[in-house]
Specification:
The structure holds two protein chains of two kinds. Chain A is built from eight helices and ten strands. Chain A is of the alpha/beta class. By secondary structure, chain B is mainly alpha-helical. The chains are: A alpha/beta, B mainly alpha. At the A-B interface, helix 7, strand 9, strand 10 and helix 8 of A face helix 6 and helix 7 of B. The structure holds adenosine-5'-diphosphate and magnesium ion (MG). Chain A: Keywords: ATP-binding, Nucleotide-binding, Transport.
């Protein structure tokens, strides 16, 4: 089943009356359970694309379909409702609720979606544990490092088991140990069927995906699977051959 | 491999098979396991150059085995190796040559070359991820070697992106 579809999606910003085309005709199809990595140089339109998919930025033209429903023509409030129900979003600059603890930030989306508080707590405990954040559960976001805030944002986005996870550079601020936690969690939820569209520069993250979409100047220049290499052949020597 | 074997022999004399095991134990699955033939060939050359010497050790019910030990000259070669700075990786990239030269032949489209190369690098990265998962988490040497390979690959991908911006 198709979770997400865009048809000729376009975004043109106005910068002092000069049009800035950021996304120029993107056709994208994402099936249920698929993990799609979006790569491309800085300024190629990755964040703009993701923001439109998440209803955070209004498209200039084209169509966005979510779970079989046309989304881009909805009213702002209907879009917001759909977003809360179906989408988990990790922003490039994580927006946590400053007045709430880490634990409450993570539980909030599930509670808003009507999940029982017991279930919401269990999910929160699982996610914080997977991201090595259990000890920070009672902290306020302002007390956290950038990397910790980023992981809390990921936990929050996954709290609801959303139909679609959208993540913009979710490991951008992490050191390699914390990146490993995120990699493990992403593989785990993907294995459990989570649909993911994720923007990244980090090849370790991208290599977990089923498919890689490459953007250049607001257009898709490549969209394809990462080939499975023949397992067992050659062994480590073929992989590790430092120049 | 010459100097790797000398380094192992600096710790204690050993026969060929023990050297193979020592390499495997130190580097884990992250290092291309050397075959025993290669090790004996290398030991033979080291002996010819006077860097190691072999003694026959008698074994009951089995043919004699050769135990190798480091000579003074071998020790000096090892000291030189450790003391001198090591060359960093150089960019001698076959793909880049292809990217620059192939369009001259009229058979290749740069965008297509770059896209295919990106997928190839990502497939390699996936193998490294899987290798890291299979590796004993206590083997820091092996894990660091894998991480090094990953960082090199990341640099190659970043460079590929720059090539795409400026050449494609
Ligand atoms: N709010 C905005 N107003 C004007 N231009 C913008 C705005 N947001 C992004 N852009 C421009 O759109 C292009 C794509 O930006 P972005 O989607 O952030 O790229 P990426 O995430 O790939 O780095 C860039 O040229 C950027 O300067
Ligand atoms: Mg961005």
């Amino acid at each position: 089943m198709t979770v997400l579809r865009t048809v000729n999606l376009v975004k043109i910003y106005q910068n002092k009356h000069v049009p800035v085309p950021a996304v120029r005709g993107v056709d994208l199809l994402v099936d249920e359970g698929e993990f799609v990595a979006v790569m491309g140089p800085s300024g190629s339109g990755k964040s703009t694309l993701l923001h439109m998919l998440g209803g955070l930025d209004i498209r200039t033209s084209g169509e966005i379909w979510l779970d079989g429903q046309r989304a881009d023509t909805l009213s702002e409030s209907a879009w917001a409702l759909l977003r809360r129900k179906k989408i988990g979003f990790v922003f490039q600059f994580f927006n946590l609720v400053a007045s709430m603890t880490v634990a409450d930030n993570v539980e909030l989306p599930a509670l808003l979606a009507g999940v029982s508080s017991k279930e919401a707590r269990a999910r929160r405990e699982y996610l914080l544990d997977a991201l090595s954040l259990t000890e920070r559960a009672d902290a306020a976001p302002a007390q956290l490092s950038g990397g910790e805030q980023q992981r809390v944002a990921l936990a929050r986005a996954l709290a609801n088991k959303p139909a679609l996870l959208l993540a913009d550079e979710p490991t951008g601020n992490l050191d390699s140990r914390n990146t490993r936690d995120v990699l493990r969690l992403l593989s785990e939820v993907h294995r459990d069927g989570q649909t993911i569209v994720l923007v990244t520069h980090d090849a370790r993250v991208a290599s977990l995906a089923d498919r890689v979409v490459s953007l250049l100047d607001g257009q898709i220049v490549d969209d394809g699977r990462i080939a499975r290499r023949r397992p067992g052949r050659g062994g480590a020597g073929e992989v590790i051959d430092l120049r | 491999m010459r100097l790797h074997l000398l380094a192992l022999l600096a710790k204690e004399p050993a026969h060929g098979y023990e050297l193979k095991q020592a390499l495997e134990q130190t580097f884990g699955s992250a290092y291309p396991s050397p075959n025993i033939g290669q090790i004996y060939v290398t030991l033979g050359r080291l002996e010819k150059d006077g860097l190691v010497r072999a003694v026959d050790v008698e074994q009951s019910n089995r043919p004699n085995k050769k135990v190798y030990y480091l000579t003074g000259k071998g020790r000096d070669a090892l000291t030189d190796w450790v003391d001198e700075p090591t060359e960093g990786p150089r960019v001698r990239d076959e793909f880049f040559m292809k990217l620059v030269l192939a369009p001259l032949t009229g058979i290749a489209d740069r965008m297509a070359l770059i896209n295919r190369q990106r997928r190839h690098y990502l497939a390699l990265m996936r193998d490294l991820n899987e290798l890291a998962e299979r590796t004993d988490q206590g083997n820091q040497v092996a894990l660091l070697l894998i991480e090094g390979a990953m960082l090199h690959l990341q640099a190659d991908l970043d460079w590929l992106e720059r090539c795409q911006e400026d050449l494609a």
